[in-house]
Amino acid sequence: MFFVRIPQNRLEAIMKAIWIQFIHGTRDQFLWTLTVVFTGILTIGMVGVLWPAFAYMINTSLNSHNYAVSSVVMLFGAVIVCTVLFLFWLLNLVLRKVWSKQKQ
Q1: Is 68 left (phi over 0), alpha (psi -120 to 50) or beta?
Q2: Each residue of 19-65: pLDDT tens digit?
Q3: Which domain holds residue 77?
Q4: Residue 66 within any structural domain of the chain
């Protein structure tokens, strides 16, 4: 297995930045920070799950010189990018709705 080890001081710096946004930042800044963090986690998860299939498709398209397979690979990549952007937008929208309900 391949694991990425984040140094302790770097992890603490990330957590401290999020905490500072929570305490001293505006609500919008905090929502965007939280959205970016969760979207990053979702993106890493999607890449981890879908990467073997994507790598197989790239390898197949390079070996076969088949333009139809290459276009499917590009379409698959575009779907992943659009899905991540949609999740980013949806998560921000949900957080804004929840926050506005708590404010009332």
Answers
A1: alpha
A2: 666 666 666 667 777 777 777 777 777 777 777 777 777 777 666 66
A3: 49-99
A4: yes
